[in-house]
Amino acid sequence: MTTHLRHLTTLENLPRATIEHLLDRAIAMRDACAHGTRKLDLLTGRTVLNLFFEPSTRTRTSFELAARRLGADVVNFNIGVSSTTKGETLYDTLHTLEAMHLDAIVVRHKVDGTPDELVRNAMSGVSIVNAGDGHHAHPTQGLLDALTIRQHRPDFENLTVTICGDIRHSRVARSDVHALTALGVKAIRFCGPAGLLPDADEFPQVQCSEDFDAAIAGADVAIMLRLQKERMAATELPDEAAYFQHYGLDPRRLARADRGCLVMHPGPLNRGIEIADEVADGPQSRVLEQVANGVFVRMAVLGELLAR
Amino acid sequence: MTTHLRHLTTLENLPRATIEHLLDRAIAMRDACAHGTRKLDLLTGRTVLNLFFEPSTRTRTSFELAARRLGADVVNFNIGVSSTTKGETLYDTLHTLEAMHLDAIVVRHKVDGTPDELVRNAMSGVSIVNAGDGHHAHPTQGLLDALTIRQHRPDFENLTVTICGDIRHSRVARSDVHALTALGVKAIRFCGPAGLLPDADEFPQVQCSEDFDAAIAGADVAIMLRLQKERMAATELPDEAAYFQHYGLDPRRLARADRGCLVMHPGPLNRGIEIADEVADGPQSRVLEQVANGVFVRMAVLGELLAR
Amino acid sequence: MTTHLRHLTTLENLPRATIEHLLDRAIAMRDACAHGTRKLDLLTGRTVLNLFFEPSTRTRTSFELAARRLGADVVNFNIGVSSTTKGETLYDTLHTLEAMHLDAIVVRHKVDGTPDELVRNAMSGVSIVNAGDGHHAHPTQGLLDALTIRQHRPDFENLTVTICGDIRHSRVARSDVHALTALGVKAIRFCGPAGLLPDADEFPQVQCSEDFDAAIAGADVAIMLRLQKERMAATELPDEAAYFQHYGLDPRRLARADRGCLVMHPGPLNRGIEIADEVADGPQSRVLEQVANGVFVRMAVLGELLAR
Fold it and tell me: B4, B290, C16, C55: which has the fewest C-beta neighbours closer than 10 Å?
């Protein structure tokens, strides 16, 4: 481990050693939970607050379980009924929460960069953890995807990873690229309809393609992204069936990938849109391992940030 | 006790010994909570998730208190803002939650049989507890009603139990019949408007009547069901006042029952519709004992299912 | 300390010694939390239920943190989806919760006197804590304001306190007056537009003024109240800018107060309406100390009420 992390808002520019340390720690968390009682006392007496400006039961629950299994108290701050609806600024909300002596704030917000804004404005020792901001970053997702890959294919330098779907608006894709680049993967390929691919200069190291048959060929990992249905208009595909035909992962396409190609998806799945049932439920699917690793990665992150 | 229970989705076909064991265990829970601190450590380190697809603060709170008093962590999965609204299937939600290593999922759903569907599709060691599914079953309510009766009248073989109201759509009535039949009550009578009585062949052992004066005569227990106001149309009664006149439990009718007749209601009460104030608040009312027993029964069930 | 408190619904008529005892206890809570782990075990095994009929994430979170830091379990009873929407009376809700063996119910309700109604109807040993009822009282806010003042100016007998804004509809102002009067402040001044001042005979000891320049002159403490925007009509001020011009606390007005005048606000702030940014964020602002003290005061109150 290099320097002590106080916040986690993005994986961009994190050193490989830091990412590897967090993945190692996640495995240690998994092992610690495997025997007998599943509750550790690393964070006893600490308080983690979930500040979700976008609804996300799945990610919130994963963070909540992670914090509780470390012995922390968790408070859910339901922003739908909160003071921001009464006109309070984000900064006043932050400072109010800090004054209540929280140890960590897990934040999700639709505006890119909100967690970094909180870091810049924090006045106390609170740790900020990004649970997803706009199109910008979702660092714990990047870590859990990296961990899931590493458990099957620790030889990152040999891996070709294809990420397919709405890359342009995906914080998952961005955090995946940051993690996988730091870990030294051989190649990353983006695939999707032109309107959902990122600007050409955003990721110069990544190959972009509108042809999924080509992009999946020989891939070791396929990460399928969730299609936000309101994005269909940007795709020039007439409907979901057409999207599936062009960009869905079905058995025929999966057969073009490497024989042991890992199939991943951040969830929740749109079956029949991004992915066929046979693939989602097939032997190469790592979707549920991703979910399980999500809890361990979040335990690792909270343990790391809140370590005294 | 016969076999170890892993799930509880219905009381139907549970042996009498199993039901008695759960009631005994509920009493043991009550006694364990009566002295000093009310927190036990039977389920320390275990996680119970409330998965309520229908709102129910009352039942959810009862389960939450039961789990916490056994030392478990409780996570409320607010399905109103969850992935199912994003199109995720129930099975993907189940498998996602299982991947997070929950010990029990307490589920309420408006569709009959959903908890059994979860049991059939569960892939891990998670226990499924039915907190009410459609018109089908509400087993912890059946147990708490049986416990409340047993505390006053353990001589089930002598008891006549009258259940009055919307039997047809009532999971409470069904679970009550299953529990009381297993415990050997002498007679069960259903009473309500024709449109709210069940099909004749569903409960051949039960006497059905539209005449509450007759059905309450000599009863040892009167279980009044909550009227869903949208069911009025099926009753051919013009309004709530007319419903109360025909099927409300008032002092005059209660006087027709056995002198010590227990008055029960699953709550929340519609006063002046199913039950008169004088009866709800009178000395024969067991409504609040039912609530108290609800927590103990749920402690017993969670303790039983999650015992290692 | 004089008599043991069982409920806290108002500060009106509480003896000075009781208020001072609660403030002392809040300081003891703060000190106990300052070293090492922040979790005490005073209320281990006890259950506190938040019963909020009005949304308030801020106050609810403060009570939740207070209870958890004392080791209690906390259940949030989300009344928006509860039985009261199914027609259950407040009394039936109360008795149902009592039957579940709660130790304290923290209640917020828009109707004046609801917490006292609960006290009058409680059947068990449950403690009722008022978290704000209508325009009537918000006793923990009164205590935290008194504590914040005492930390800087324990010489209450020398203090002039100006409370500015919508006094008429403010439970905060009323509880502040009760606390500060008991603690023996020299003078309290109310200031606001005529339509937002209380009736002349409600607080005979308080000076009322529509002229903020006069009311702030020489003040030792300025408590700015939040303007409910729907109250604008009652002010005869055309808009928020005009309100700020007449009743906002800006640096020019603050300069008219005593040199060390404490600036307070219960939050959430309407910046540019009640208070200028420079003042809210300036060296005399005690707003965040109020928030921090809120948790300690609520720990003190819960500890006091639930002491065996």
Answer: B4
